[in-house]
Design a protein that fits this description.
328 residues, alpha/beta, Rossmann fold, 2 domains, seven-stranded mixed β-sheet, 13 helices, elongated
């Protein structure tokens, strides 16, 4: 009897070991996803909302068969790295990385757990994939490469007399650098002079924008996470000094910019969510999933009428007729 008891104990221990092995992270029947969002601002928030909606539509429902550990890094790269390490230790089934620094932290933390990124302009240039067409590793997702040239054309249409345009961006953010180069090329193409203005910290915004007063006719800001977070400060100084700002996305426009021709970040996140569903269902592998882009029809022309009135500028009818007006 004693031998039988001991045998049962051994069998139980063996089953326990197999059941709690290194690769097991769904013992409660739940799929586990870790989310790192670089900072809190409307575009990135919308990306997360779109991602979650796609998961739900794909059959992954929070508290039913899905657990989501959402973390906001508050704009700190070191926080991204700490959170990514935690997710690896927690053996999540998939990571969502919202913005470039978050994606780089996830990619550096693991080469086995699938990583789906979104709101990253050029994953290949940022060292996250072998190529945007064929990622080749455990990372894939959606790019928020905006129609920069169309945004500069919008600036020229609204401000036909503009001669000097400041390109304001975060020089420590790969996606911003890429767009800034594109903007400078487009500004020159349209017969204007580009003035490159780089910052790396929120507390620099006020003094840098103040330094542009009397020196530029307009400011262009790409989809930049740092400047999106500090857009209210940019707008406060620029609008007070009658310097119009053309921005990279709708959230920045809502926070005081004049206009944008930009992507739907909700749709961008949704597309990333669809990719995550395919990965979790075993239908696709990140290595073979090209980086996704939104079609041109997902871009929307948005004008902040409150800012237009504050600046006292006139928007041409040809622009107004195609625009979504906010803060009327």
């Amino acid at each position: 009897m004693k031998k039988l008891f001991n045998l049962c104990i051994c069998v139980f221990v063996l089953f326990s070991l197999f059941g709690c092995g290194e690769g097991s992270n769904t013992d409660d029947g739940m799929t586990k996803i870790g989310v790192i969002q670089l900072a809190e601002h409307p575009a990135l928030d919308q990306s997360y909302e779109g991602f979650m909606k796609a998961l739900e539509d794909g059959g992954f429902v929070v508290d039913t068969n899905l657990k989501v550990d959402y973390k906001n890094a508050q704009g700190e790269v070191s926080n991204c790295e700490t959170i990514a390490t935690k997710f690896v230790n927690d053996k999540v089934d998939l990571m969502l990385a919202i913005a470039t620094n978050a994606a780089q932290a996830c990619a550096n933390a693991t080469d086995t757990i699938p990583v789906v990124l979104t709101a990253v302009t050029d994953p290949e240039h940022s060292g996250l994939v072998e190529s945007n067409a064929l990622p080749g590793g455990n990372v894939t997702g959606t790019s928020d490469l905006t129609p920069v040239e169309a945004q500069i054309e919008l600036l020229k249409d609204i401000l036909p007399n503009a001669k000097t345009v400041a390109v304001l961006f975060n020089g420590a953010e790969d996606n911003s650098i890429i767009q800034a180069e594109m903007a400078k090329t487009a500004i020159s193409k349209h017969g204007m002079t580009a003035k490159e203005v780089s910052i790396s910290e929120l507390n620099q915004i006020q003094s840098v924008v103040e330094s542009l007063v009397g020196k530029v006719d307009a400011i262009y800001i790409p989809t930049d996470n740092l400047l999106a977070e500090g857009m209210a400060t940019v707008a406060m100084i620029a609008n007070e000094n009658k310097i119009p700002t053309i921005v990279g996305e709708e959230g920045m426009c809502s926070n005081g910019g004049v206009a944008t021709y930009g992507l739907s970040y909700f749709n961008l996140g949704y597309k990333a969510g669809e990719m995550a569903v395919a990965i979790l269902n075993g239908e696709s592998d990140p290595a073979n999933m090209p980086i996704g882009y939104l079609p041109a029809e997902d871009c929307t022309l948005t004008i902040n009428m409150e800012t237009v009135r504050e600046l006292g500028i006139t928007i041409p009818d040809s622009v107004m007729s195609n625009a979504t007006l906010i803060n009327e």
